[in-house]
Amino acid sequence: MTCLKRLALSVGLLIGVTLAQSAMASVVMNGTRVIYPADIREKALQLTSHDAYPNLVQIWVDKGDPTSTPQTADAPFIASPQIFRMNPKAGQIVRLVYTGKDLPQDRESVFYINFMQMPALKAHDMEANKLMLTVSSRMKIFYRPQNIRGTPEDIGKSMTFTLQGNGSNQRLSAENNSGYHAVIREANLLVGAKPVNVAKAVMIPPFSKVQWPVKGASAGNQLRLTLVNDYGADVTTDQPVQ
User: Fold this and answer.
1) Nearest Cα residue to 118 out of 80, 67, 84
2) Which residues of the chain fall below pLDDT 50?
């Protein structure tokens, strides 16, 4: 049995504590999201370890279940290698391959790649019950067909914002009319001199809409959107409220 297999099997013998918090991860993936063009055969992902000790890393992809595990992974992607040892201060290339059937060609589809790190075990630890700290990180994969109208840079201009109801029942309908996912860091309604926050950390799928509760808004107000682009950078745009 290889060293990696022994390490993987030993995980089941340990008392594990998993932290699903990317900020604590010392094994990191370049970028903040994965853009997977539909016309490529595979996507190379770069991982880097900042630890002074070796780690065992396992990767899987799911369709949107944040509690997924390598055993329940259900997305049509294969990561190769799926489990590997990372030496201290070293890097690793992982190849991501789409294996599914045809997806809608007029819009993006989103999946999630997970990678879990755990300290590599010494031989004398294999038989012992030990408390082991593992860290799990999660990142979006945007599967992007070539036939989507417009560009990702035009997402803000493709959105419409419409007031509905009044008084305590007033809502702002935010509609994404593009084939791209609108990833919104925050949305602030400009009413008077002070921006009023109406949403944070929201992703609106293609050709979908959400509603946000608002107060005192009127047609003609501006909504200041902070969108996250393909590179993880913030892009701010002001759009009219109808």
Assistant:
1) 84
2) 1-23
- The pLDDT, as a whole number, for residue 121 is 67
* The pLDDT of residue 127: 56
Tell me if domain 16-144 and domain 152-240 are identical in fold: yes
> How confident is the model at residue 18, as a pLDDT?
46
CB-based contacts of 177, cutoff 8 Å, min separation 6: 158, 159, 160, 207
HEC readout, 24-71: HCCEEECCCCEEEECCCCCEEEEEEECCCCCEEEEEEEECCCCCCCCC
* CA–CA separation, 61 and 72 (whole Å): 9
Question: pTM for this structure?
Answer: 0.85
Cα–Cα distance, 156 to 27 (Å, whole number): 33
ω into 81 cis (within 30 of 0): yes
Whole-angstrom Cα distance, residue 92 to residue 56? Answer: 12
Q: What is the pLDDT of residues 106-146, one digit of tens each?
A: 999 999 999 999 887 665 555 555 556 678 899 999 999 99
What dotted CATH number matches 152-240? 2.60.40.10
Helix (H) or strand (E) holding 235: strand 234-240
CATH topology of domain 16-144: Immunoglobulin-like (2.60.40)
Phi, psi of 156 (to 5 degrees): -60, -40
